[in-house]
Amino acid sequence: MAERVLVIEDDRELGRQIVLHLRRAGFDPTWWTEGKTIAPEDAAGLSLVILDLMLPGAHGLDILRDLRARADVPVLVLSARADTMDKVGALKLGADDYMTKPFWPEELVERVRARLRRPTLQRDDALTIGALTIDRARRAVQVRGRAVELTRVEFDFLAALARRPGAAVTRAWLAEQVLGPEREGSERTLDVHASRLRKKLAPEECIETVWGIGYRLRAEPAA
Amino acid sequence: MKLRLRLALTTIAVTIPMIVVLVLFDAVARHRAAEEALAGFALARMQEPGGRERCEADPSRWGGEMGPGRGPPGAGEASETRGRAASDSRGRESGAAGASDLRGRESGASDLRGRESEASDSRGRESEASDSRGRESEASDSRGREAKMGPPLDDGRPRGRPAVLFAYDAALRSANPAAPAIAEPLAQAIATSEVATSEVAISEVATPEVATPEVATWPRSWARSWWSAEVEVLVRMPWEAGPCARVLAQGSTVPGWLGAVLPPTRIWLAPLVALFAAVLLAMGPIVGRIRRLTEAVRRSASAGYASAVPIDGSDEVGELARAFEAAGREVRAQLTAKDRREAALREFLANTTHDVMIPLTVLQGHLSELNENASAGAAIDRAAVVAAMGEAHYIAAIVHNLAVMAKIDADAPRLHREPVAMDVLVERVLARHRPIARRLQVELDGAVPESPLHVEGDVTLLEQAVSNVVYNAIRHNRAGGHVAVLLDRVGGDRFRLRVVDDGPGVAADELTRLVERGFRSDAARTRAPDGQGLGLHIAARVAALHGIGLVFESPPGGGLQVDFIGPRVCAEAADSPHAAHS
User: Fold this and answer.
1) Contact between A163 and B450 using a beta-carbon 8 Å cutoff
2) ipTM value for the complex
3) Domain B415-580 in CATH: superfamily?
4) Which of the residues bear the PTM 4-aspartylphosphate (chain A) (predicted)?
5) Alpha carbon A189 to chain centroid distance?
6) N or C end of chain A: which has fewer CB within 10 A?
């Protein structure tokens, strides 16, 4: 079932675009064009609120304060002004994030997704990321159900990446996690291990090289 | 109210009550002195040799006015014996001596002097008269005495009515039909004291049981001594027997307003008036200087504080002038600074407008082209769409920079400082630029530490600084290029934010000039790839404001590497709840 997102934005065109892009991204948006208190029955079932600050009716910060008194639904604030007070004030009142206008629609969708992303089930024994299943207790890895034999370093490498799926991590951090601190030429060694690991996991391209940074474990299956 | 008028009114308001009080006090003092003189005179009159005898011999006739020109109190004295006259004369002498003794006592009250000398005068004349009647041999003595006492009598000063004496027995009955009845307060007073006066005796003899009503008479008695010239005392004689055990003495104070405490002549008014005039005269130059200063300040203010205020003197007025001059200097400095800022802002606005108008025009061109192509049914020109998006993104960056620059220029010292989560900030900057980087086919990635990293600062400024560096790396890159943003903890309590790209880079000799505000080549104005605008300048200004170092380097593989290195907030401060996302 699509997640419900309440959009409070007074500008007709901008509101229409936001709603359009949210709907395309698979959300179920509700659009209010003026500021008013979010009643408990409205708040129920909402996954996220996108709140403009400058609104006719009620100021966005007042709506936020009122909402925070009753509900924990995530709030993404839209701010047109480059005013630090507005942003800090919104965050202090309990906003989860803010975006400064202008923004690209895909940036908005990405931020909404990031806000709604459920934390991965971090059970000690098993972890599923895309095509990968990593069993940390038994130190076993499966690719689409196929077991893959990994060395100790290879497994640690994969487990370290799996701590933050989708995020790039630096070679230096990986080397420290996998090979231990202060080893000569450890980053080169790391690349060798990465290369072997990739071959074992093929044809899935789970591990990406990130230019200037290091590696990343692909969170979604490759398109 | 004008200064001079205020001063004059204040002086008058202070002086008049003071004079009134002094005059009132003077009247009371004169009254007191007159009472004491009368009492002394009555006592001396009776105690002089033969005084009592004369009274007791003929109490019905003794009494009446004792002053000069009205004859002696006892006209029958003339028929008395010579010896008696002689002793009388001697007695009068001693009486006169008593009177002069009195004078000594009353020397403080000049009012008395007249009365007292009048009394001795009358006595003198009296004795002279009896002398001339009785003993010729003593006449010259008397005359000499008279000559001695005479001159003070004729000093031309006003005198009170001559004293009137009446004798009473211990029960306050008088044999003399002319004697007035003794008023009740006096009768009460004499019962317990040697001398009873009509006004104050009552309280002098106050006994506890009668004290209460008498307290109320005090103001009345004072008031009476103020407006009434009449003085009345009842004197107890050293004996109780006979018709002359009490003597009532009546008289008056010296006419006129003053004389007891204040000098009787009006000369004392002269210094008062002189003082008053001196105060007003002294005010003259001060008022004049203040007026001139006011005029000068007005002139200076109307000329935009361009002219100086003249300073004369080292007193308070001079101080005021100096204060005005200092204030004027401050205003001049502020105005100059404001003018400078305004000029800079105008120039900045003109440049920015120029910078915005060009991409806007290009954007319009792209949109127009897209529209024409769509009308013609042609396939969408993807390159034109991407270019249009690039222009829009560029415009947004310029406008953000304009706002940040205005903020830095306006109130750099009053930045909003809060712990800012740099990892979240980096994510936000990446999210802002990722859509356009994707369109430009520049790979944009970032890596942040696993746990939050906080920096103390203004989130708007820091974000714009990082954003400018990242966008700079994207915009000056080429399709297939890369931009990486790395946030790390370094050296314990510091952070390093590195933005590295594999674009064309910057020549070594230009690295140090990157952050100059004026460093915009003609190529930059026309948006050539090597044009550096305001963005890096803002990054440098923001970094400096936050105590963050900004280092530009050309990495070995080409491109540009920019490092922000500065202090980070240590764990405990970063734990504040709102800081996590800021």
Assistant:
1) yes
2) 0.89
3) Histidine kinase-like ATPase, C-terminal domain (3.30.565.10)
4) 52
5) 30
6) C
